[in-house]
C-alpha cells in the first residue's frame, strides 16, 4: 500500500485543515488528512479522463420491471468505498470481512488478534489504504477530540418523550448538532467548489465522533437514569460501550465487530443512497446523514434487526404458553403462520445478495467462539437450518438466506442488551462511517446533483405499444 504523499498535498492539508488534532499532533506519521489530500488530484483527473474519453459508453439497459421495481441492478451510481457481489457479499475497498479481520489493526495492536478497530476500517474506507496501528490510534485521538456535543444537544435529547422511537431521537439529535456544521458555514461564506471536500471532511469526522454520545444518551435516558460515563483512554468502540453502560472486554470486542461490519454495503442500499442523494444538494454531512438514518429506520432495512428479536420473542412466548418445545418443527409452524398472514420473515431475504450474508456468517463465528452454549444462539441456528427450505417452498423470495440483521440482536441479548427497540441505533452509529466516507469522495470528485428521470405509466405503455 502506498503510504507516501506529495509535499504539496501535505502542505495543502496543513494549511487548510482546522482540526485541532491535525495542528497539535506530533508529526511522525502520515495523517488521515494528508493521505487523502495526496489522493484527491489523481482521482479527480482519472474521473475526468473517464468522462471525457468514455462518457457515452453504454453500461446497461433498463427494463420496465426495473423501473417499477425499485431499480434493482440498475447501474447508475458511483461508489468508491465498497462493492457488493450477490454471491460473495461485501468487500470493503476490495477486502472481504475475513481479509479485514486478518489485516486491520486491532485493539491489542497485534493484527489478527481480535476484531478490527472501527477506526482502522474508517481509515480503509476513506483512503483505500490499510492504516498502521499508529494511524488508527491517531484517528481514535482525533475522534475523541471532536466528540464534545454542542451544549444544546443533551438537554434537547433529555426533553424527548421516552416512548419516542430511539431512531427518531437519533435523527433529531444529529440534526440538532448541525448548528456546528463547518461545511454549511463555508458554503455560506462562498468557498470555491474545489475546497468543498475539505470542509465536508471536517463535518464527517465530527459526525462520526459525536454520534456515540448522542446514541448513548438516548439509551441511558430511555432505559436507565440518563447518566453517560465516557472513557477516552479506550478506542471508539470501547468508549461507546462504557457510555452505554457496558464494561466487559468480550462485549467491547462484539461492538468492534458490530460497528465494522455494518458500516458500508455499497451505494444502492437505502441509508447510503439517501445520504448520497441528500448530500448531492450540498446539504451538509449532518443533514445528509440524518436523511440516511431516517431510511435506516424502516423495517425492510435497518429496523429489521429489532424485528428479528421481536419475532423470536413472539415465537417463544407462543410456544411457552402452549407448553410446546421450541424446535425445528415449531419454528416451521410459526414461520408459515407469519408468511400466511402476508408478513415478511425479518432477517431473511435481500435485494442483492443471493447467498448467506457474510456479515451473518462472521457473527455466527463470533457466537461459536464466545457464546457457543447460549440458548438464543442455538435457537437462531435452528432457524437458520429450517428457514431457507421454508422460503424456497414459499416460492416468492429471491434470496431465502439470512442477512446481517438476523444475527446481530442475539449477540447483544447475550450480554444483557435486551432493549431491542434500540438495536437499529447501533446500526446507525456504524453506517455513518461508510455513508460519510463516500460523501467525502462525492464532494472531492465534484459529483453533481442527483436527479434521475421519472416516467409516467402512459409513457411506459407508449414504449411497449410502439
Ligand atoms: C441491512 C438490511 O437492510 S438487510 C435487509 C433487512 N430486511 C429484512 O430482513 C426484512 C425481510 N426481507 C425483505 O422484506 C426483503 O427480502 C427485502 C426488502 C430485504 C428485499 O426485498 P426484494 O428485493 O423486493 O426481495 P424479493 O425480490 O425476494 O421479493 C420478492 C417477494 O418475496 C417477498 N419476500 C422477500 N423477502 C421475504 C421474507 N424475508 N419473508 C417473506 N417474504 C419475503 C417480497 O416481499 C416480495 O413479495 P411481493 O412479490 O408480494 O411483493
Ligand atoms: O444492501 C442493502 O440493500 C441492505 C443491506 O444489507 C445494508 O444496507 O447493509
Automatic annotation (TrEMBL):
It comes from the Eukaryota. Keywords: Acyltransferase, Transferase. One of its GO terms (biological process) is carbohydrate metabolic process. It comes from Fistulifera solaris (Oleaginous diatom). It holds the Pfam family Citrate_synt. InterPro entries: Citrate_synth-like_lrg_a-sub, Citrate_synth-like_sm_a-sub, Citrate_synthase, Citrate_synthase_AS, Citrate_synthase_euk, Citrate_synthase_sf. PROSITE patterns: CITRATE_SYNTHASE. GO terms for cellular component: mitochondrial matrix. GO terms for molecular function: acyltransferase activity, acyl groups converted into alkyl on transfer. The active site is at residues 301, 350, 405. PANTHER family: CITRATE SYNTHASE, CITRATE SYNTHASE, MITOCHONDRIAL. Belongs to the citrate synthase family. This is Citrate synthase.
Amino acid at each position: 500500500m502506498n503510504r507516501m504523499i506529495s509535499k504539496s498535498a501535505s502542505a495543502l492539508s496543513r494549511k487548510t485543515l482546522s482540526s485541532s488534532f491535525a495542528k497539535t499532533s506530533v508529526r511522525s506519521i502520515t495523517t488521515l488528512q494528508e493521505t487523502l489530500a495526496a489522493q484527491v488530484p489523481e482521482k479527480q483527473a482519472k474521473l475526468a479522463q473517464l468522462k471525457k474519453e468514455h462518457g457515452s459508453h453504454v453500461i446497461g439497459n433498463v427494463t420496465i420491471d426495473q423501473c417499477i421495481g425499485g431499480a434493482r441492478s440498475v447501474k447508475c451510481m458511483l461508489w468508491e468505498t465498497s462493492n457488493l457481489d450477490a454471491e460473495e457479499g461485501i468487500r470493503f475497498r476490495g477486502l472481504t470481512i475475513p481479509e479485514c479481520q486478518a489485516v486491520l489493526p486491532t485493539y491489542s495492536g497485534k493484527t489478527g488478534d481480535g476484531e478490527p478497530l472501527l477506526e482502522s476500517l474508517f481509515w480503509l474506507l476513506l483512503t483505500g489504504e490499510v492504516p498502521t496501528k499508529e494511524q488508527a490510534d491517531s484517528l481514535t485521538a482525533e475522534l475523541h477530540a471532536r466528540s464534545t456535543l454542542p451544549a444544546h444537544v443533551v438537554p434537547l435529547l433529555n426533553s424527548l418523550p421516552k416512548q419516542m422511537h430511539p431512531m427518531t431521537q437519533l435523527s433529531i439529535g444529529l440534526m440538532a448538532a448541525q448548528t456546528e456544521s463547518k461545511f454549511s458555514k463555508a458554503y455560506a461564506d462562498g468557498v470555491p467548489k474545489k475546497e468543498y471536500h475539505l470542509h465536508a471532511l471536517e463535518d464527517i469526522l465530527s459526525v462520526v465522533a459525536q454520534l456515540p454520545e448522542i446514541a448513548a444518551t438516548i439509551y441511558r435516558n430511555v432505559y436507565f437514569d440518563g447518566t453517560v460515563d465516557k472513557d477516552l483512554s479506550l478506542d471508539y468502540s470501547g468508549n461507546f460501550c462504557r457510555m452505554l453502560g457496558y464494561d466487559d472486554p468480550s462485549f467491547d470486542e462484539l461492538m468492534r465487530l458490530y460497528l465494522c461490519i455494518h458500516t458500508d454495503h455499497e451505494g444502492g442500499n437505502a441509508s447510503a443512497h439517501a445520504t448520497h442523494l441528500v448530500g448531492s444538494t450540498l446539504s451538509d454531512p449532518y443533514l445528509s446523514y440524518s436523511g440516511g438514518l431516517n431510511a435506516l429506520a424502516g423495517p425492510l432495512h435497518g429496523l429489521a434487526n429489532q424485528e428479528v428479536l421481536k419475532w423470536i420473542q413472539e415465537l417463544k412466548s407462543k410456544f411457552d404458553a402452549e407448553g410446546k418445545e421450541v424446535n425445528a418443527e415449531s419454528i416451521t409452524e410459526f414461520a408459515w403462520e407469519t408468511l400466511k398472514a402476508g408478513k415478511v420473515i425479518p432477517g431473511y431475504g435481500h435485494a442483492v445478495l443471493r447467498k448467506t450474508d457474510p456479515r451473518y456468517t462472521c457473527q455466527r463465528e463470533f457466537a461459536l467462539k464466545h457464546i457457543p452454549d447460549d440458548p438464543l444462539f442455538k435457537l437462531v441456528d435452528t432457524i437458520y437450518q429450517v428457514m431457507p427450505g421454508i422460503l424456497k417452498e414459499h416460492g416468492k423470495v429471491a434470496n431465502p438466506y439470512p442477512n446481517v440483521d438476523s444475527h446481530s440482536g442475539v449477540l447483544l441479548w447475550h450480554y444483557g442488551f435486551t432493549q431491542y427497540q434500540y438495536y437499529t441505533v447501533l446500526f446507525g452509529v456504524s453506517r455513518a462511517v461508510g455513508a460519510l466516507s463516500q460523501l467525502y469522495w462525492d464532494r472531492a470528485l465534484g459529483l453533481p446533483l442527483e436527479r434521475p428521470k421519472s416516467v409516467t405509466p402512459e409513457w411506459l405503455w407508449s414504449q411497449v405499444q410502439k
